[in-house]
Amino acid sequence: MSGITLFKSEGEEAKDLRDYRFEAKFNLEEWPEAAYPNDQNSGFQWNLKVFATDNILIVEDIREKEFFENIMTKWEENEPGRAEKAKRSRERFLLLRKKEIGEELTEDEIDFLAEFKERTRDALEEEG
Questions:
Q1: Residue 27: pLDDT above 60?
Q2: Final residue of a domain: which of 13, 38, 61?
Q3: Residue after which a domain boundary falls, among 61, 86, 109
Q4: How far apart are alpha carbons 56 and 2 in whole angstroms?
Q5: Do 68 and 18 have their domain in common?
Q6: What is the reported pTM?
Q7: Do 4 and 23 meet the contact criterion of CB atoms below 8 Å apart?
Q8: Are residues 72 and 84 in contact, defined by beta-carbon separation less than 8 angstroms?
Q9: What does the alpha-carbon distance between residue 85 and residue 116 come to, in Å, rounded to a whole number?
Q10: If we measure between CA atoms, which residue out of 38, 40, 2, 5 comes closest to residue 20?
Q11: Which of 7, 57, 95, 100 has the fewest Cβ atoms nearer than 10 Å?
């Protein structure tokens, strides 16, 4: 697998000079299906073998996740219902992408797209 890199943390994160971040990226020319979630690119299991002369701690870096969760919480406080609207919009995007690449949609997925279209049309009529 190409694109596996070990990065040294920078800036505020680099208080401990031994703070590293492990990152894997997929080359879309080698594996175009990796662009969107599907059965081929989810549920990975990593085996990491480390040899060291000092203690090693392996933890999930949740700083970025917490940062974006805080932003989304503020958005929801300022505009109630925004999170649900974004979730539906994302689901629509993924279903349209699935349809675009030739995968068959289930009845529930087809119904969701039809309902989404109706809700959008109704919302536009209310505004205008």
A1: yes
A2: 61
A3: 61
A4: 25
A5: no
A6: 0.48
A7: yes
A8: no
A9: 10
A10: 5
A11: 57
My answer on whether 74 and 116 are in the same domain is: yes
Token pair belonging to 73: 């919480």
Residues 57 and 68 in one domain: no
- Same domain (yes/no): 57, 87: no
As a whole number, the mean pLDDT across the chain is 80
Q: What is the pLDDT of residues 64-77, one digit of tens each?
A: 899 999 999 999 99
How many structural domains compose the chain?
2
For 90-97, the CB contacts below 8 A with 24+ separation are: 92/116, 94/36, 94/37, 97/36
C-alpha span between 104 and 89 (Å, rounded)? 19
SS3 of 61-115: CCHHHHHHHHHHHHHHHHCCCHHHHHHHHHHHHHHHHHHHCCCCCCHHHHHHHHH
In terms of domains, do 91 and 43 share one? no
Q: Which amino acid is at 102?
A: G
The SS3 of residue 57 is coil
**Domain identity same for 56 and 67:** no
Q: Residue 52 sits in which domain range?
A: 1-61
> For 69-96, what is the mean pLDDT?
92
